[in-house]
Write a structure and sequence with these properties.
Strands 2-1-10-9-11-12-13-14-15 form a 9-stranded mixed β-sheet. Strands 16, 17, 18, 20, 21 and 22 form a 6-stranded antiparallel β-sheet that branches. Helix content is 31%, strand content 26%. It contains 16 helices and 27 strands. The chain folds into 3 domains: 167 residues, Rossmann fold (3-Layer(aba) Sandwich), CATH 3.40.50.12780; 188 residues, ANL, N-terminal domain (Rossmann fold); 90 residues, GMP Synthetase, Chain A, domain 3, CATH 3.30.300. By secondary structure, it is an alpha/beta fold.
């Protein structure tokens, strides 16, 4: 197998009338999904998209997934743009990408026109008669090292980085995820994450492989947790793969206490540290469900390590990130050498999940995708994650923070994530983030809670952390700012430091 559309074709032949991708107003069967991909692929191939990038300027709905698959059918690779992002950032992405086309729909056509990229509407593409001979010629020439998509992440310099993912990456990753979590045609995913965020890859491509149904959840429901849970129940959603902040919204409102529980059997989370107190709330309501902490950067397709919960954790106890996924190996290195258990080092990954590199950024690629220092005898690329980890006494990987989030305060090196983990066990605390204020050499803990818990937090941390790790300021916010992916927006919190 060399192309992810082979998964779609096999599933459409096996389950033609089963629901594939759904949203609030539309449902596409597997047969309809395949037909749409072929129509869109024919239209795009006729516009010169084969072997080139295509930008998608569409809402977070089921038709956007049809567009992704259509780009792949044309022999091209896609980038999903966030229609809510500022035009300036979208322009930076399209300038880097230099797409052959921009695929949008009638609703977004006026805004898309401002991007000055040749444009095709999804409506016109879907109306194109499929050209089987042309699509077959494209497929015959394809190899598994061809790109399927380029996903742009934020860069430390402010310039977005385009992570280039191949068909080989998706085939290997989806095989692991489907087998590990027993995904089948009986699975119904509740898709929370945007399609320009790597976590959505799991929902979409594992569904292609297995025939699972993907329900794209309306974003507005995450402001109304009880309505959200009722929606999951109505749609028969049984599998969640959400960022911790989204799960935390339900826990903060105690929403599981006030409605019939959705039929959930599998609850997965990734993207940021999961507050254990929030997880314990979910586990108390779903004692028989499978819970797993997934870890991985976009550069490993989505995930490279995971920990399935098999024991109880205290509210202020950090979860491990576990062990390597099958067909993916993890190295913990310091100064080019493997570190012994218990010692911190940078986590590096190798194997078939590794991206091809950064699109049109050879210097950045060379910096992060390097020769394996433990294996100098032939070319073998590993990816440096920039994350600090250590092996614990159980042989599990424990996340210790980012190398670039490590700060020095009062002569000590501190991982801010450790302060946050200690704080999360505080009763009534809903969310928190610790930042370092260099001009005043102080730690500031921003927190969200229904009432002022600054003093209890101060006492709690004083009893759990050395004095040099205790925040000098506790700043309560009405709502913790979040970025488009649902993670805590630390850049926005930085703007509040001067006022704290």
């Amino acid at each position: 197998m060399k192309n992810i559309l082979e998964l779609l074709e096999a599933t459409a032949a096996r389950l033609p009338d089963a629901p594939a991708f759904c949203d609030e107003t539309q449902t596409f069967t597997w047969a309809e999904t395949l037909a749409a991909a072929r129509a869109i692929g024919t239209a795009l191939a006729g516009q010169g998209a084969t072997g080139r990038p295509v930008a998608l300027y569409l809402a977070h709905t089921a038709p956007c997934i049809l567009a992704m698959l259509g780009v792949v059918a044309a022999g091209g690779f896609y980038t999903v743009l966030d229609t809510a992002q500022p035009a300036e950032r979208i322009a930076r992405i399209t300038t880097q990408l230099a797409p052959a086309l921009l695929l949008t729909d009638a609703a977004h056509l006026p805004a898309a026109a401002a991007l000055a990229v040749p444009t095709l509407t999804l409506e016109d593409a879907l109306a194109t008669p499929p050209d089987a001979a042309r699509l077959n010629t494209i497929r015959t020439a394809a190899v598994d090292a061809d790109l399927a998509y380029v996903l742009f992440t934020s860069g430390s310099t402010g310039l977005p980085k385009g992570v280039a993912i191949t068909h080989r990456n998706l085939l290997a990753y989806s095989e692991w995820a489907a087998a590990t979590f027993a995904i089948s045609e009986k699975t119904v995913f509740g898709n929370q994450t945007p399609f320009y965020f790597s976590m959505s890859v799991t929902d979409i491509y594992v569904a292609l492989r297995t025939g699972a149904c993907v329900q794209v959840l309306p974003r507005r429901l995450f402001s109304f947790p009880v309505q959200l849970l009722d929606y999951l129940t109505a749609k028969g959603v049984n599998t969640l793969y959400w960022v911790p902040s989204a799960l935390g919204i339900v826990a903060n409102w105690k929403a599981l206490d006030y409605t019939a529980l959705p039929p959930l059997t599998t609850i997965l989370f990734a993207g940021e540290v999961m507050p254990t107190a929030k997880l314990n709330y979910w586990r108390a309501h779903y004692p028989a469900a499978r819970f797993a902490n997934l870890y991985g950067p976009t550069e490993t397709t989505d995930i490279c390590a995971y920990y399935e919960l098999t024991r109880a954790f205290a509210d202020d106890e950090a979860l491990p990130i576990g062990r390597a996924c099958d067909n993916c190996a993890l190295l913990v290195l310091k100064d080019g050498k493997a570190v012994p258990p218990g010692e911190e080092g940078e986590l590096c990954a190798r194997g078939s999940f590794l991206a091809a590199g950064y699109y049109a950024m050879p210097e950045k690629t060379a910096e992060r995708f390097i020769q394996n220092p433990l294996q100098p005898h032939y070319p073998e690329v590993i990816y440096r994650t920039g994350d600090l980890v250590r092996w614990n006494e159980r042989g599990e990987l424990v996340y210790c923070g980012r190398i670039d989030h490590q700060i020095k305060h009062r002569g000590y090196r501190i991982e801010l994530g450790e302060v946050e983990t200690a704080a999360f066990g505080q009763e009534k605390l809903e969310s928190c983030a610790c930042l370092y204020d260099p001009p005043r050499d102080r730690l500031v803990l921003f927190y969200q809670a229904k009432r002022d818990v600054a003093e209890p937090l101060r006492q709690r941390l004083a009893g759990r952390l050395p004095s040099y790790m205790c925040p000098a300021v506790y700043c309560r916010v009405k709502r913790m700012p979040q970025n488009a992916n649902g993670k805590i927006d630390r850049k926005e919190l930085q703007t509040l430091l001067e006022k704290a």
